[in-house]
Specification:
Elements: H1 2-32, H2 39-51, H3 74-84, H4 96-109, H5 118-127, H6 134-150, H7 153-163, H8 173-181, H9 190-198, H10 213-226, H11 232-235
Helix pairs in contact: 1-6, 3-9, 3-10, 5-6, 5-7, 9-10
Length: 236
């Protein structure tokens, strides 16, 4: 019995070591190479093939129109930081101030407020599957740590801007800019950038070309916060 337990522990330890080695190599590779698609997109493709009706068009993996951070308007960089993660340049993957605020709001009003950083969003979009299980959250935290240890802030933000979901069939800043405003992401004005950032919490429900009053309020707040975003460090 002891021998079986010992062998089982060795197999488990070897499996964990292999998993750590694979995940580290995976994250390190994408530090230098742009992902052609995300794991999130791959999961949606597989799910659509399994679940879609015979006469229903399945989900298609769209081509990412990759742009370096310098090819994206500083207005959009500021707007995304203002809307999604204002302490991105100072935290190490986890914004504990935002987490505390989210817990306090949840306890007082029973509303669930997101506290995901840009690093956490990149971790789950690029490397993980779309679910809300505790196992996925543990992996998300693990991959977030790997990203912060091996990538620069500039690389994390660049990958985020190129892989974030901006609506049905719209992935990344360049695709969103051309679909909604008929221009390159390098040419976005402050108001356009703020409107794109404003829809990020729910890009399949909100439209930047048909904004509600709530969305315009979000846009105005983002524009007020944009000037506070010190982006020179990541744009060098």
């Amino acid at each position: 019995m002891k021998g079986l337990l010992k062998r089982s522990l060795k197999i488990l330890a070897a499996g964990l070591l292999l998993l750590c080695a694979f995940s580290f190599a995976e994250v390190l590779a994408f530090r230098f190479f742009n992902p052609p698609f995300t794991t999130f997109m791959a999961w949606r493709w597989v799910a659509s093939r399994i679940q879609s009706a015979p006469d229903e068009e399945p989900y298609r993996i769209v081509r990412i129109q990759w742009r370096s951070l310098r090819q994206v308007s500083p207005n959009l960089v500021k707007a995304v930081l203002a809307a999604e993660d204002q302490r991105f340049l100072s935290h190490h993957g986890f914004d504990f101030i935002e987490i505390q605020e989210a817990l306090r709001e949840m306890l007082s009003s029973r509303r669930i407020r997101g506290a995901s950083t840009i690093s956490m969003q990149v971790a789950r979009t690029v490397f993980l599957w779309p679910s809300r299980t505790w196992l996925r959250k543990i992996y998300e935290a693990y991959y977030t740590l790997l990203l912060e240890l091996t990538w620069s802030k500039k690389r994390i933000l660049e990958v985020y801007l190129n892989t974030v979901d901006w609506g049905e069939g719209v992935v990344g800043a360049e695709s969103a800019s051309r679909k909604y405003f008929r221009r390159s992401s390098a040419e976005l004005t402050p108001s356009e950038a703020a409107m794109l950032a404003a829809i990020l919490p729910n890009p399949h429900y909100w439209s930047p070309v048909k904004p509600t009053e709530h969305l315009r309020e979000r846009q105005r707040k983002i524009m007020n916060d944009m000037e506070k975003m010190p982006v020179s460090r990541v744009l060098r």
